[in-house]
Write a sequence for this structure.
């Protein structure tokens, strides 16, 4: 298993995009908006690969000094609940901590809250709707 950072537009990036689409967008029958797509080049794209297959991926957006947003966390269907999501987040946290990031924020689907809580994230504020489904803002301090 290797945790990799893909360059925007690369073949590996396109593999991550395809996984995100299949796991996160297709079930909701949603496409990315033009605004969402325009952000991708400015974001960082991390994933886990096994024998050249991307099994998990996520996107990191810089919000302000020391604070990032984790977005679009997706693990392939047959690999879920096997520790890939945990491995990926913990490895990305190490990279970010080495770059003086101290806080990771995210918007969690209600169905994924337990996963993020396992990884040390805590809910902040109230439930809200995003892509028409209930979400919670969550936050974790790293060092
Ligand atoms: C949610 C998701 C990212 C979790 O990744 P994963 O690789 O399946 O999770 P892991 O196997 O690393 O699980 C780590 C821990 O969280 C728990 N967990 C995993 N998914 C969970 C969930 N949906 N709810 C509650 N707990 C969960 C695991 O049981 C494990 O617990 P442990 O500490 O007792 O071992 C993945 O299942 C997924 O892509 N789901 C569909 C898309 C999605 O919901 N993405 C998040 C959008 S905000």
């Amino acid at each position: 298993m290797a945790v990799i950072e893909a360059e925007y537009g690369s073949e590996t990036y396109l593999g991550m995009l395809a996984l995100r689409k299949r796991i996160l967008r297709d079930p909701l029958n949603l496409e990315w908006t033009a605004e969402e797509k325009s952000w991708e080049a400015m974001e960082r794209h991390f994933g886990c690969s096994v024998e050249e297959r991307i099994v998990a991926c996520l996107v990191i957006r810089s919000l302000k000094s020391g604070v990032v947003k984790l977005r679009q966390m997706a693990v392939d269907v047959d690999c879920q609940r096997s520790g890939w999501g945990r491995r990926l987040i913990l490895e990305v946290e190490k990279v970010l901590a080495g770059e003086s990031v101290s806080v990771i924020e995210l918007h969690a689907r209600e169905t994924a809250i337990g996963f993020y809580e396992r990884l040390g994230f805590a809910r902040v504020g109230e439930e809200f709707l995003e892509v028409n489904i209930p979400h919670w803002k969550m936050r974790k301090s790293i060092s």
Observations:
- The domain at 2-101 is CATH 3.40.630.30 (Aminopeptidase).
- Residues 23-24, 73-75, 80-86, 108-109, 111-112, 114-115, 118 surround coenzyme A (CB under 6 Å).
- The first strand starts at residue 2 and ends at 6.
